[in-house]
Specification:
The chain has helices spanning 13-29, 40-47, 58-75, 90-101, 105-117, 126-135, 140-147, 150-165, 187-198, and strands at residues 3-8, 32-37, 173-176, 179-182. Helices cover 57% and strands 10% of the residues. The protein is globular, with a radius of gyration of 16 Å. By secondary structure, it is α+β, with helices and mostly antiparallel strands. It has one domain (3-198): Glutaredoxin (3-Layer(aba) Sandwich), CATH 3.40.30. α2 crosses α8. Strands 2-1-3-4 form a four-stranded mixed β-sheet, sandwiched between helices.
C-alpha cells in the first residue's frame, strides 16, 4: 500500500485546513495516512522561521489573513477565529503522542481539531483539553498523565527533530517517500505523487 506522512501541529490553521481534506485524498488514492504530530514552535526555533501571523511586514501579514479566509470559503469547511491563537501547543502535541501510544489517536484527533478551529477553545489549557477529551469519551487524565512522562515527551522531540532534519520548516508538511510538500495548497501535487508511486 502507498502511504504519505502528514506532519502537523494543531495550532496551525493551515494544518487544520489540510486535515479536512486528508481522508478524502487517502480514499481516492488508496493510500495510508501516517500522522506525525510535531511541535511547530520547535521547528520554528530550529529553522529560524516564524508563523505568518507574526510576520513583521504588515501588508504581508494582512494578506495571509485574506488568504486564510479564501481557503476557508473555497473548501467550505467550518472555521471560527480562535481568540486564544497563537497558543503554546506543547502539552497538546505531547498529548497527541500519548494518545498514539495508547492506541486512541483517531478519536483524540477527531475531537481536538474541531475544538480548536470550530469551537475556538483554549487548547493550551489543561482543563480545557480535559473537557474536550472527556466529551469524546477518552480517559483524559490518563492521556495527560502520559503526556508528561518521558515516552511521549521523547517521542515528540524525536519526531520534531527528524522533521527538521528532513527539511521541514513549517506546517503542514507532507512526505510521499522522500518528496516533500509544504502547505495545504499542495494536496493536488501530493495526490499526483501518490498516483505515480502506485503506478
Amino acid at each position: 500500500m502507498t502511504r504519505f506522512e502528514f506532519f502537523f501541529d494543531y495550532g496551525s490553521p493551515y494544518s487544520y485546513l489540510a486535515d479536512t481534506q486528508i481522508a478524502a485524498l487517502a480514499e481516492r488514492t488508496g493510500a495510508e495516512v501516517v500522522y506525525r504530530p510535531m511541535l511547530l514552535g520547535g521547528v520554528f526555533k530550529a529553522t529560524r522561521n516564524r508563523s505568518p501571523f507574526v510576520e513583521p511586514v504588515e501588508p504581508k501579514r494582512a494578506y495571509f489573513a485574506v488568504e486564510l479566509r479564501r481557503w476557508i470559503t473555497h473548501l467550505r469547511v467550518p472555521f471560527t477565529h480562535n481568540p486564544h491563537f497563537p497558543i503554546n501547543t506543547l502539552l497538546l502535541m505531547r498529548s497527541a503522542v500519548a494518545a498514539e501510544q495508547a492506541g486512541v489517536f483517531a478519536p483524540f484527533h477527531e475531537a481536538v481539531y474541531p475544538a480548536f478551529w470550530c469551537d475556538a477553545q483554549d487548547m493550551g489549557d489543561a482543563q480545557v483539553i480535559t473537557r474536550v477529551l472527556e466529551k469524546a469519551g477518552l480517559d483524559a487524565a490518563s492521556i495527560l498523565r502520559a503526556a508528561g512522562a518521558a515516552p511521549a515527551k521523547d517521542a515528540l522531540r524525536i519526531t520534531t527533530e527528524a522533521a527538521v532534519a528532513r527539511g521541514v520548516f513549517g506546517a503542514p508538511t507532507i512526505f510521499v517517500g522522500d518528496e516533500m510538500f509544504f502547505g495545504n495548497d499542495r494536496l493536488e501535487f501530493v495526490e499526483r505523487a501518490l498516483g505515480a508511486q502506485a503506478a
